[in-house]
User: Which sequence fits this backbone?
């Protein structure tokens, strides 16, 4: 049972990390022709945050990209997993709320944003993170 849980925690951590890193890679056009690109992301940020002034879109886009890149990197290497997972949960929950306000609840449900947030919250509840930098440093 413990081995299955270790594998599940590891897979949850890695899939959340790759979700964040893939999104930021797309904004920065690192996925080539499949990338969304920066301008499209800023436009989408303005749409998602339609209740805020349009002039805030670029700042929100930059801040969210930096946050997602850090969260993705920290989760991938397994650094400060509990705190990072809580940040991931909060960030994606705020994103889901903003999407719900601007587009209705269907869009965040279709894109599984609430599931992503709940998965990150679940990850934050474990006491150990196998195959992580944290585990490696504590074994030294």
Assistant:
């Amino acid at each position: 049972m413990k081995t299955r849980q270790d594998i599940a925690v590891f897979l949850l951590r890695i899939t959340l990390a790759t979700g964040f890193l893939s999104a930021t890679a797309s904004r920065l056009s690192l996925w080539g022709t499949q990338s969304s690109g920066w301008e499209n992301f800023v436009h989408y940020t303005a749409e998602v945050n339609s209740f805020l002034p349009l002039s805030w879109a670029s700042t929100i886009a930059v801040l969210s990209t930096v946050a997602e890149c850090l969260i993705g990197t920290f989760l991938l290497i397994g650094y400060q997993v509990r705190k990072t997972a809580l940040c991931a949960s909060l960030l994606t929950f705020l994103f889901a709320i903003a999407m719900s306000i601007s587009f209705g609840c269907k869009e965040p449900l279709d894109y599984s944003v609430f599931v992503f947030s709940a998965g990150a919250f679940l990850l934050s509840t474990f006491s150990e993170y196998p195959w992580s930098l944290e585990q490696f440093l504590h074994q030294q």
In short: The chain has a mean pLDDT of 96. The two ends are 26 Å apart (CA to CA). The helical segments are 2-27, 38-48, 57-77, 81-103, 106-110, 113-123, 133-139.
